[in-house]
Amino acid sequence: MAAGRFPSFGLATPPAPRAIGADEAIALLKGGQAKPASLLAYGNGRSYGDSCQNGAGAVVDMRSLNRIHAFNAETGVLEAEAGVLLSDIIAHAAPYGFFPAVVPGTQFVTLGGAIANDVHGKNHHRRGTFGCHVESFTLLRSDGKTHRCSATDNTRLFAATIGGMGLTGLILSASIRLMRVHSLDIVEKATPFRDLCEFFDLAEAADQANEYAVAWIDQLAGGRNSGRGLLLSGNHAEHGSHAASRVGGNFSV
Asked: Is residue 67 predicted with pLDDT exceeding 50?
């Protein structure tokens, strides 16, 4: 049994009381010893609310599956185990000039969790959700069988697992497409707006001109200040202190 607490961010109910390691869960599933609805994957606990609750059984700590298996520095396709953090992917791919196409509010989420929650970033208007950049993944089902899922293989499982909150099985590994960037630094612009009408006009223009855009609205303001806030927009810098180089070469284990 895995030690530690297994909460989510902003948890409303107590954390899951039982947790087991990924290797133990895989052995149980492949050996046909796991009871129905007894296991639910747990990533790095950054989800909002009660997304990793399993009162009928145990959560599976997937963080031990943390190896990057392969990376193609020409295409930006990376293959890694489900417990790898997006921060690990960034550290590995940035020297080659690549960055995850979608990163949510924290880089400390697992690859499997990003798929299961189909997370979105501040560039949703351009890149869509994380699932739009998944090439394939390996899924271990409750019957003990392992399936390779993609847009052409096991397509129904592929679609149901992206955003499926872990209910279709354990994601063991995945291949994703990264995007090319010049730098990890972001050139940011902060634009104040007086009300929501002005925000909508600014937001439409910001979406067209920027990779990233997000707004903060002052919900404590009232009267004529109601709806005021800041629109934050940005693009990866052409040259920055954290430049993404083009070292070339492929990686595999």
From this structure: yes
- Is a pLDDT exceeding 50 seen at residue 50? yes
Task: Tell me how far apart the alpha carbons of residues 96 and 251 are, in angstroms, rounded to a whole number.
Answer: 11
Query: d(Cα 197, Cα 201) in Å, to the nearest integer?
Result: 7
CATH of the domain at 127: 3.30.465.10
Q: How far are the Cα atoms of 44, 118, 126, 183, 229 from residue 111, in angstroms, in the given order?
A: 10, 10, 21, 22, 33
Calculate the alpha carbon distances from 141 to 27, 28, 29 in Å: 12, 11, 8
The structure's pTM equals: 0.90
User: How far apart are the C-alpha atoms of 164 and 149, rounded to whole Å?
Assistant: 14
DSSP three-state, residue 70: strand
Domain boundary among 155, 180, 205: 180
Write the DSSP symbol of residue 85.
B
